[in-house]
Amino acid sequence: MFARTRQLTESVQENTLFKVLNMLTNTGTAFDLDMEISGTDDLAAAVGHGRGVFLATLHASLNTLIIRQLHDVGYKPMIIADDTQMLIPGTRHLSSNSAPRENYMLRMRSRLRAGGVVCAMIDRGEAGRRTIDVTTPAGSIIISPALFHVAERVNAAVIFAHVSLRSGKARMTFAWAAPDGGSLPTAIATQRFIEFARAHVPQLPRD
């Protein structure tokens, strides 16, 4: 379903690296992350506020490493994903995944209200009534603002994240949606997410 998005958000090299790391994980081979990570202070500050934190990203294979980074620093996020048996990369621990089925937004809201961390890839494979079609010179990505609305309703902090290969080095980036770490109206959070994607996804050309 998300093959079109991945064609825009990841390179052949990134997909190959993901397949190697996924094979290691599935065969029980542990590995440590060796990458440049920026914005960890933003992430720590967001969690340190005591409010819930919604972490938004795109469907790109290496973004599963974000779950490993959160695990390594002691966070236990709720992951909104279909695969409820997904291993945290490089470990034998299952991630705490919640399938996007009936009532999943209620579960997300409860976790955020309790001060927890919720992660989701917010692009969609098909357009819907409230999705946004983001057009780029390379093609379009369909974004759903729905989870930003849930975060806004409970005054949760919003963080963006992405992992990419640049000059042969894996780089993970975290960034506040709001410079002051506050909650944002859904429309503004959505626009800033699009700006973040254009800035940090090397394959996504700027207009």
Compose a concise summary of this entry.
It contains 7 helices and 10 strands.
What does this structure look like?
Helix content is 35%, strand content 23%. It is of the alpha/beta class and 207 residues long. It has one domain (3-200). The strands form 2 sheets. The chain has a 7-stranded mixed beta sheet, with helices on both faces. It has a 3-stranded antiparallel beta sheet with strand order 6-8-7. Helix 5 runs parallel beside helix 6 (146-153) and helix 6 packs across helix 7. The two termini are 25 Å apart.
Topology:
Elements: H1 3-9, H2 12-26, E1 36-38, H3 40-48, E2 53-57, H4 65-72, E3 78-80, E4 97-98, H5 104-113, E5 117-121, E6 123-124, E7 132-136, E8 139-143, H6 146-153, E9 157-166, E10 169-176, H7 186-200
Structural class: alpha/beta
Portion of residues in beta strands equals 15-25%
The average pLDDT value, as a whole number, equals 88
Low-confidence stretches: none
- Tally of separate helices: 7
Number of strands: 10
- Helix proportion: 25-40%
What is the strand arrangement across the widest sheet?
A: 1-10-9-2-5-3-4
N- to C-terminal distance: 25 Å
- C-alpha geometry: globular
Largest sheet report: 7 strands, mixed
Radius of gyration: 16 Å
